Every structure is written in structure tokens, then in C-alpha cells.
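Section handout, structural biology tutorial.
Before the tutorial, make sure you can parse a SMILES string by hand: atoms, branches in parentheses, ring closures as digits. In the record below the ligand is zinc ion, and the chain has 121 residues. In the tutorial you will relate the predicted C-alpha cells back to the input. Do not try to memorize them.
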Amino acid sequence: MKRGQENGANDGLSGPSERLLARRDELRALSARAQDSRQPVELDQSKVGRLSRMDALQGQAMAQESERRRGAELQRIEAALARLSSGDYGYCVRCDEEIAPARLKLDPAVATCIKCAGGGR
Ligand SMILES: [Zn+2]
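Predicted structure of the complex:
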């Protein structure tokens, strides 16, 4: 029987660094897999099969877009990991206020408090 993590603070979710690292691995794996399938647009109709050239180009654009998004998320995660090691984690990068725990639980890579993220004034 294993009951190592039953002291209050941990409510079943692992800590932010575990979650960030797991997500980073996931994104890297996805990216590596996408790299394999990302080939130049095949112009030879016989090889394209039912896909028209337009569809192939569109698919490529979508693949590039999701790669771009993965890159952006990876950067956020790297930044959050850096804040964890410097002790700044959990504080808004703009106003230095504490970020609500519920907000961090939702997205452990979040860098701003709800007020700053809201963009309101
Ligand atoms: Zn803030």
C-alpha cells in the first residue's frame, strides 16, 4: 500500500514542475512526430492520391501552424520552469502580485495574474 502524498497540500495533482515537465515532454514528442510526417508537398498526382494539391498545401499550412503553437507553448513552459528555479514562480511577471492557486492549477505555465491577463485597466 502506497500513501506517500497524503498531507493536505497535495490534492491528487502533482506539483507544477512535474506537470510542466510532463507537458514539455509531450509537446516535444508531438513535435518530433509531426516532423516525420511533414514532407514537402507532393506534386505527383499519382502519389497524392485523392488529395488535391490544394488540400496538401492546406494540410501543410495547418501543420506549420500547430508547430508554431507548440513552439509558443514550449517557450511559456520553459519560462515557467525558469521561474520555478529562481523562486519567482507563482508571482505575476507584470505586477508581482501572487497568482491565484486555482489559476496555476488550470495552467501551470501561466505567467500573469488574472488582472494583468484580463488586459483591462
Ligand atoms: Zn499581475
